[in-house]
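batch_manifest entry 22 of 60
target: Iron ABC transporter permease
source organism: Micromonospora profundi
requested by: lab member K.T.
priority: normal
notes from requester: please return C-alpha cells only, no post-processing; we will run our own comparison against the previous entry in this batch. if the run fails, retry once and flag.
--- input ---
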Amino acid sequence: MTTLDPRTVPDAAVVRRPVPVRLLWFVVAIAVLLSLMAASVALGSRSVGWSDILAAFQGVDDTMEQAAVTKRIPRTLLAVTVGAALGLAGAVMQGVTRNPLADPGILGVNMGASLAVVTGMVMFGLSSPTSYLWVAILGAALAAVFVYAIGSLGRGGATPLKLALAGAATSAALASLISAFVLPRNDVAGNFRSWQIGGVGGATYDSIRQALPFLAVGLVVCLLSGRALNSLALGDDLAAGLGERVAVVRGVAGAGSVLLCGAATAVAGPIGFVGLVVPHVCRLLIGLDHRWLLPFSALLGASLLTAADVVGRVVARPAEIDVGIVTALIGAPFFIYIVRRQKVREL
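--- output ---
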C-alpha cells in the first residue's frame, strides 16, 4: 500500500503548466500593467504630452496639462493597488470556499463594508479615511462570517450554490439597511452615494498611504496561504490527512482576503466583479497551483482595474464613468457565463 507524501501530493493534484510558460505569462502581465499605468497617466479628458508627464514627475505643474498629470499619478497608483487587492482576495476566497462564484461583491463582503462605513458616517460622524478603514474591515469580516455560516446550514455544508444564494440575500438585506440609513440624512447622502458607486477619481497619496499597512498585511497572509490552499483543493479529508489544519487554514486565508477587501473598499468604494473575473482568467493561463495563481491574480487585478479606469475616462470625455460601473458591465456577463458553464459546482 502506497503512502501519500504531503510535500508532493498538493502539487500533483493541480493542473500544471511548464515553469517557462508561467514565467512568460508573468513577464507579459507585468509589461501589460506598466503599459496601462502609462496610459492612465497620459489619457483622460485632457491630452498631455511626454514633456508634460516628465515635468509633472519632477514636481512641476505650471500648466493645466501638467496639473492633470499630477492628479492622475495617485489615481493610477490607487487603481493598481485596489485592483491587485481585489484580484488576490477573489482568488483566495474561491480557494477557501472551493466556490467558482466566490467574489467580495457576490458574497456580500463589499456590502458589509459599505454598511459599516455608512453606519459610522451617520451614527458616529466618521469622516477620515483612517476611520473608514477600521469600520470597513470590521463590516467586511462580519458579513463574510455571516454569509459563510448561513451557507453552511443544512445538508452538504457550504456548497457553491448555497453560498452564492446566501451572499445575494445578505447583499440585498444590507443594501436595504444602507438606504434606510442614508435617505433621511441629506448631509451624508451625496458623499456616500459617490463613494458607493466605486471609483478612484478622488485618490490622494494620503489615502493610499493610510491603506497600505492593511493591504500589505493582507497581501502577505494571502500569498503565504498558497500551498495550504492547494491542499484544500483536494478536499477537507485529504487535506487533513496531509497534515493541514483545515479550519485554521480557512480562517487565516479568509482573514487575509477580508483585510484586503475591507481596506480596498474603504479607499475606493465597493467595486465588484474584479475578484470574480480575474482568478478564472489566471487559471486558464497558468493553471491551478495557488503559489503561482495568487500573485498572478494580483497582477491581472491591477491591470483590469487600471484598464477599466482608463476606459471610463476616455469613452465619456469630457465627463467620466466611474470604474465600478465599468467593471460591472464586464463582470455581469462573465458571472452569467460561469454559472451556465460550470453549473455552480465546486472547484
